[in-house]
Write a structure and sequence with these properties.
Helices cover 30% and strands 22% of the residues. With 330 residues, it is an alpha/beta fold. It comes from Stutzerimonas degradans.
Length: 330
């Protein structure tokens, strides 16, 4: 874990750099100057040299889309490969911070540089803000040496990029890493077609929770258009309304036309095990893939990275079952 000598600070917007407007807090440019001024007030910190890059326009992370994930990944690649940076710090809004961290975990497979993401619950400069603590804490972690791969830094903690979720809004300690049963990824090596250098294309995905009374029409509506993949949030260990023939038929029809269907548990500490209940077995028979103990953020990001790489449905099914970076937790 060598110390970073040159870090790319990539600013995407978010609460950390927001300014007050007549309509409320809004993303603002010019954060580099504020960062430099604040660093001068903290001469005792051991920080890496850094260069600043801003994705324009800066956005509220509530407006984050998968196309932004691709732009962030491209900026990171440029910083590392062309500008000589050996580490990256992404400044990001907290609403979708865990989604971006998970997606980047798969879009940057094989990148031999640490990538940290951080943000804040309150804007920099506001009394009681966590902005500078999170930002300079992340830079300090990179200076001290961080492992290659994607992680979140929040409230004095490093969190697994593909296992983290935002759990609250009232506390500065808003993120947590969800439990895992093992601590090392099962995959051995990164397949060339999933390497971070390979181009990705945007694909349309959907997420749908099961709930008492869900109808086949609602499922078909979620799968309308050019949706290529669906993350279905099932009950408990991967069950659902298995006595609804029309709902099961809608799933089977989507699978037959090439839509990749992924099942995860709605429970934060849940784990899909289709064979445990007959209700789960019937869902699996419709073509659903077992998401193990993956989070919603990880399942969505992984599906995006696999389908965006141009893999066939069969190839996606194979690699979705492989633990690529510690995401599956089974």
């Amino acid at each position: 874990m060598p110390a970073s000598r040159k870090t790319l600070v990539l600013y995407t917007g978010g609460t950390i750099g927001m300014q007050q407007s007549a309509d409320g807090l809004m993303p603002a440019s010019g954060f580099a100057e504020r960062l430099r001024a604040q660093q001068l007030l903290q001469p005792g910190r051991a920080l890496p040299d850094w260069q600043f890059r801003e994705l324009l326009p800066p956005i509220d992370s509530a407006n984050m889309t998968p196309r932004h994930w691709l732009a962030i990944a491209a900026a990171i690649r440029q910083g590392v490969e062309q500008e000589g940076c050996d580490a990256v710090l992404v400044l990001h809004g907290t609403d979708t911070l865990a989604y971006s961290a998970a997606a980047l975990s798969f879009l940057l497979l094989g990148l031999e540089a640490p990538v940290l993401l951080t943000g804040s619950m309150l804007p920099a400069g506001v009394p009681g803000s966590d902005a500078w603590d999170n930002l300079f804490g992340a830079l300090q972690a990179l200076h001290d040496g961080a492992v290659a791969g994607v992680q979140l830094y929040f409230h004095d903690r490093l969190l697994h990029g593909a296992r983290a979720s935002k759990l609250g809004t009232a506390s500065l300690d808003a993120f947590a890493t969800l439990p895992r049963q093992r601590h090392e990824p099962r995959g051995s090596g990164i397949p060339p077609h999933l390497d971070y250098r390979q181009p990705r294309q945007p694909v349309e995905l959907a997420v749908l929770p099961l709930y008492p009374g869900i109808q086949a029409a609602q499922l078909r509506a979620a799968l309308a258009g050019n949706v290529r993949g669906l993350v279905l949030e099932c009950y408990g260990s991967g069950t659902g309304p298995s006595d609804d023939a029309e709902l099961l038929a809608a799933l089977a029809e989507a699978h037959a036309r090439g839509v990749v269907l992924v099942a995860i548990s709605q429970c934060p500490q849940g784990h899909v095990d289709f064979g445990l209940y007959a209700a789960g077995s019937r869902l699996a028979a419709c073509g659903l893939l077992d998401g193990g103990g993956m989070t919603r953020e990880a399942a969505l990001g992984k599906l995006f990275a696999l389908l965006g790489a141009g893999l066939t449905a069969a190839e996606v099914a194979h690699w979705f079952a492989v633990d690529l970076c510690g995401e599956r937790a089974d």
